[in-house]
Amino acid sequence: xxxxxxxxxxxxxxxxxxxxxxxxxxxxxxxxxxxxxxxxxxxxxxxxxxxxxxxxxxxxxxxxxxxxxxxxxxxxxxxxxxxxxxxxxxxxxxxxxxxxxxxxxxxxxxxxxxxxxxxxxxxxxxxxxxxxxxxxxxxxxxxxxxxxxxxxxxxxxxxxxxxxxxxxxxxxxxxxxxxxxxxxxxxxxxxxxxxxxxxxxxxxxxxxxxxxxxxxxxxxxxxxxxxxxxxxxxxxxxxxxxxxxxxxxxxxxxxxxxxxxxxxxxxxxxxxxxxxxxxxxxxxxxxxxxxxxxxxxxxxxxxxxxxxxxxxxxxxxxxxxxxxxxxxxxxxxxxxxxxxxxxxxxxxxxxxxxxxxxxxxxxxxxxxxxxxxxxxxxxxxxxxxxxxxxxxxxxxxxxxxxxxxxxxxxxxxxxxxxxxxxxxxxxx
Length: 428
Description:
Blueprint: E1 2-3, H1 19-29, E2 72-74, E3 90-91, E4 97-103, E5 119-126, E6 132-138, E7 146-151, E8 157-164, E9 170-175, E10 181-185, E11 192-195, E12 204-205, E13 214-219, E14 226-230, E15 237-242, E16 256-263, E17 269-273, E18 293-294, E19 298-304, E20 307-312, E21 317-322, E22 327-333, E23 345-350, E24 356-360, E25 366-370, E26 376-382, E27 390-395, E28 401-406, E29 416-421, E30 425-427
Parallel strand pairs: 1-18
Antiparallel strand pairs: 2-30, 3-26, 4-29, 5-6, 6-7, 7-8, 9-10, 10-11, 11-12, 13-14, 14-15, 15-16, 16-17, 19-20, 20-21, 21-22, 23-24, 24-25, 25-26, 27-28, 28-29
């Protein structure tokens, strides 16, 4: 196997020897839960939710009819430098404010749902009533899953609930154009789970997307291919090509071809088929294809206007894959500076206008925007939580609220989620 990159140390233990930890966490975090049941796990919400794979209904996800996001222009390039830490230890530019939205083990304000441990990847989904939903993974073994917070049109919390339970190490993931959330398990036999942000449709495992240590996934809405990162020191970049479209007009994720990228020295990308994507034999998925290019710990991934951006934390790089040209290039490389502004690259998202927002795992605990001209703009910094990481950055539909978490922040070091409000964007 050909590798362009160097091995990296792993950041945390997510598998192996964790049964006792998981049992302890389950008893502490989910008191009164019936582990044999698929219901009653929504933290007291009035709406019953089936959060598990079921045999009722079609195998495809019935699309949520979500409204289009409003047309926006980015003002991120105009934002000034970070100021002094506020009362919560958050550094922000002038004109911006931060508040705690949820903290592990505490009810989300106005709801009976206790916020989950180790919040990780997240995204927002607009709603027809003018509100939206923010979903957030829980990177905990065995009881991880996904939580969601629903907001009304004013931005006030109206509900909070679970949309997936009893999965392992749900790290990042990605939203789909048909209104579902793909939650990725980060362990050696991890899968992708398709979840309903509204908590109505049951979650479905998507083993056709590969069984490996998943990190994140992005959907190309033109070709309907899915791109996936793998958080291993010799991990790969994968592409899933669906075998067919569902009657909904969107891809059927239950079957298709999983491929792995082979990158030439000039950046040209070839896609090679993975023979056993379900890891049913002896050979792990990432070791099945000779000639596949290894990346040092694939992290966040996002599609924007024909380009797939993804991060590799081992070498502190952000990559850009031009889909039309099938060519890979480096957008950002911390190794080219003796004093890099951005380090520990991890989760990422892309604004409406092409600003690539990168969350740091370690580094300086920042969210830093890479502007379309290549310059860097720190947007947020959390101080006093150096053993944590920033996760789940996502804008609300108006582009004026940025949600994110400090995965191991808070009083017990098990997760705190914030919202920052200010003029990140304006109406087009």
